[in-house]
Every structure is written in structure tokens, then in C-alpha cells.
Write a structure and sequence with these properties.
The protein is of the alpha+beta class. Helix content is about 35%, strand content about 25%. Keywords: Membrane, Transmembrane, Transmembrane helix.
């Protein structure tokens, strides 16, 4: 676009998909005045971690009571059994230890300096690092904010909703601010736009709303209704497939059963000075440490988002896990197909098959960051069509399992039926 006769730069067009009522900020006099810097602290009071740990200890004690009633019942039916007593003791100790340990792991993230900063550039969500809690900083420029409103969650909890016209899929948020991708249901609400939900104590949400309203009152005005033009390729309605529950069952069994069992075995075997017992004890301790290290990956918010911009594999950060998010724009997707991963069960010639979704990209070495644990990347695929030794491509394998693969395929077909596997 040529410059105007006065030599000023041409005005920018609204972002693709943005309605005419809420265009990007203009560089001329029509742009709202630059807001003054302001900050709202979201740091927890010291009493909150104390209450959290105390409640966790109480929960661990109360959870042991049904075990003892169960033990008395079995003793009355079968008689005393040393093995049964050991098993009940292990389970009760696990409950007494696991809840307080998980609560203590959350304390640094509550006490770290954190809050929302607002200036002429946009909104910045900040959480400083403290001990094993990783710091997080997420910047949302004003040009990406579509609309701001107050809302109530399903539990009648006050929250502030910041709808986005464009989303940075690499945003890392603390617990009181959650990036919710388009089409995903969170806290009882769903939106066709990606959004950031701020949930905290009532007066903190009120303070944040007032700061944002002072900075950009125009963003609190209801945007005009968008024209309902049909999508060219599919419904174009954003889809979300939650994969959290697939990992949570294994994670719960791992923490409640295997971790305490390994710890108790290592404690007993390390008392023996024999080489074999020492080796077994060290192996059990190492296994316990590994299980605790991977536990946040099992319980964190995770899933597959499909919208008009592309495919996003999400595994959010939690405790000492930094998180892993991969966004694949449609322009980079060449083919999508269904696949199967076959693994040996370790029992003779036994095999187990797990359903997958294969996404072939248009160029090799495209993915440079980490991916969720239920996905894998081959940077230079040469064997699977349409790749070849002369034209290597990047292959991304999504492993939702046999139960969840139909949901992933259905989500892909709803948005891009021209690329999705034939159902």
C-alpha cells in the first residue's frame, strides 16, 4: 500500500478473522492514549500455604481410617495375617506421606512474587521463580486482546475473561491465570475464541478489572456480532480433546502404590549389608525418584486443540515440569493419517497395539522444541509415504490411545475434512 501524500505510514488492516468493530490499534490519533503502568499482586498470604499443608495432613490421617476398618474386617473373617498387616501398613503410610508432600510441593508457587502488570504495551502475567517452582512470564499485547468481561464460573466464583483475537500458544501461566484454547470448556464456559481466565480471591479480581478498565475501557465494550458466513472447508468450530484422564489413572496408581512400595522395599533392603540387597535398594530408590519426577506430567492439564489456525498439542507446566506445547499451522500440514504402534508385551510373542494419528509436515527438521509425552517427532522421516529418501519430511505422531483416537480424528474432520483421515 503506497504512503499517503503527507508521508505518514499506511494504516494496518485488521487481523484476519477480526471483526471490523475491534481492529488492531492504529498508529495515528485514533489509538487510545497510552495507559500508565500499574500492577496487581496475586501473591498468596502466608496463611494460605499453612492451611493447605494442614488440610493435607488431616486428609492423610482421615484417609487411613477406612483401611483400618477394612483390616479389622479381614482379620475377623480370615484371621491374623502378617502379610495383610504389612500391606495395610504400607498403604496407610503412603496416604499419610503423599498428601503432605504434594501440598509442600505447591508452597513455593504460592509464596513466590507474582501478579499482573499493565502498561502501554499490554498485559504481562508474571510469577517469579522460588526454590523448585519455575518462574513464568506471559505477555499479551493489546493488539491481541479482543474483548474483556467479568464472568462467573460453574461454582459461582468470580473470574475475569480476556478474549483473544490472536493467541500465542507458548504462553506459560501460573495457576490463577489459565490459557484456554478455542472450543475448550473450562470452569463451566466455552468460547469460540481462545481466552485467558483470571481466577483469584474476589477483591483481587475486582482490582484487576479496575486496572484493565482504567487502561483500556474500549475493550470492555461489547463487540458487534460477527457475520455468520459458513466455513469454506468444515465447521471451523474449534475442537478440544482432553487427554488428561488418560494419564491420570496411571499417575494415581504410580503415586499411591508403586512409589510407597519402592520406598519401603528400599528401606528394608538397605538395612542388609549384602551386595544384592544394596543394589536392589538403590534401584528402588532410583525408581521412586523417577516416578516422582514424571508425576506432574501425568496430572497436568493436557490435550489436543484443533481450530482454524492449526493443531496444538498441549501439556501445561506443573510444579517442576516446564510444560510442552507444539502448535502446527495448517500451512505446514501435508497429510494426516491413522496409524498403529505395536509393542512387545514381554510375554513370549505377545504384542499390544496402540492407535495413533500421524501428521506429516511439509519440510524436515521443522520441530525444534519438546512435545508432550503422548506424542513423538521424527525429524527426517524417509520410509513412510509421502516422505522418501529424496524428500525427507517431519512426522509428528499423536498417541491418544485406542479410546481417544476416534475423538481426535473427529475433531480434525470437523475443522479440516480435506486433510483428516476418512472415517
Amino acid at each position: 500500500m503506497p504512503p499517503d501524500p503527507h508521508g505518514s505510514m499506511p494504516q494496518q488492516s485488521p487481523a484476519p478473522g477480526a471483526p471490523p468493530g475491534h481492529p488492531d490499534p492504529e498508529p495515528e490519533d485514533n489509538q487510545p492514549p497510552a495507559p500508565a503502568r500499574d500492577r496487581v499482586s496475586m501473591r498468596s498470604e502466608i496463611l494460605q500455604p499453612v492451611v493447605l499443608v494442614g488440610f493435607a495432613v488431616l486428609l492423610g490421617v482421615v484417609a487411613r481410617v477406612p483401611l483400618y476398618f477394612f483390616y479389622d474386617y479381614l482379620v475377623g473373617v480370615r484371621g491374623p495375617s502378617p502379610g495383610l498387616g504389612t500391606a495395610i501398613s504400607m498403604a496407610s503410610n503412603a496416604l499419610l506421606v503423599c498428601f503432605p508432600v504434594l501440598a509442600l510441593a505447591m508452597v513455593p508457587s504460592l509464596l513466590a512474587r507474582q501478579g499482573v502488570e499493565v502498561d502501554e504495551h499490554g498485559i504481562t502475567v508474571v510469577q517469579r521463580s522460588l526454590l523448585w517452582s519455575r518462574g513464568r512470564t506471559a505477555s499479551i499485547p493489546w493488539r491481541d486482546v479482543y474483548f474483556i468481561k467479568r464472568a462467573a464460573s460453574s461454582g459461582s466464583k468470580l473470574m475475569l475473561e480476556v478474549q483473544l483475537s490472536r493467541v500465542d500458544h507458548e504462553l506459560r501461566m501460573p495457576g490463577w491465570a489459565r490459557l484456554v484454547l478455542a472450543g475448550e470448556t473450562k470452569l463451566g464456559s466455552t468460547s469460540p475464541r481462545s481466552r485467558v481466565l483470571f481466577t483469584a480471591r474476589y477483591h483481587l479480581v475486582q482490582d484487576l478489572e479496575q486496572v484493565l478498565r482504567n487502561a483500556r475501557p474500549d475493550l470492555f465494550e461489547a463487540p458487534p456480532a460477527e457475520a455468520g458466513t459458513p466455513a469454506a472447508r468444515g465447521t471451523a468450530e474449534s475442537q478440544w480433546v482432553n487427554l488428561r484422564w488418560r494419564m491420570m489413572l496411571f499417575g494415581t496408581i504410580m503415586l499411591v502404590v508403586f512409589v510407597p512400595a519402592n520406598f519401603l522395599i528400599s528401606r528394608e533392603t538397605l538395612r542388609d549389608i549384602s551386595l544384592g540387597s544394596l543394589f536392589l535398594g538403590l534401584v528402588c530408590l532410583g525408581t521412586t525418584a523417577f516416578m516422582i519426577w514424571v508425576a506432574p506430567r501425568m496430572f497436568t492439564h493436557q490435550g489436543v486443540s484443533v481450530d482454524s489456525s492449526g493443531i496444538t498439542l498441549v501439556q501445561e507446566s506443573a510444579l517442576w515440569f516446564a510444560g510442552a506445547t507444539l502448535h502446527i499451522p495448517w500451512s505446514e500440514v501435508r497429510t494426516i493419517s491413522e496409524g498403529v504402534v505395536v509393542r512387545s508385551t514381554g510375554e513370549g510373542s505377545g504384542r499390544s497395539a496402540s492407535a495413533t494419528v500421524e501428521v506429516m509436515l511439509r519440510s524436515p527438521d521443522w520441530v525444534s522444541q519438546g512435545v508432550p509425552i503422548w506424542a513423538s517427532v521424527v525429524s527426517r522421516e524417509t520410509q513412510q509415504s509421502p516422505a522418501s529418501p529424496e524428500e525427507p519430511l517431519t512426522r509428528v505422531t499423536i498417541k491418544p490411545g485406542n479410546r481417544f483416537r476416534p475423538r481426535v480424528v473427529e475433531a480434525l474432520h470437523a475443522v479440516r475434512p480435506d486433510l483428516a483421515p476418512v472415517r
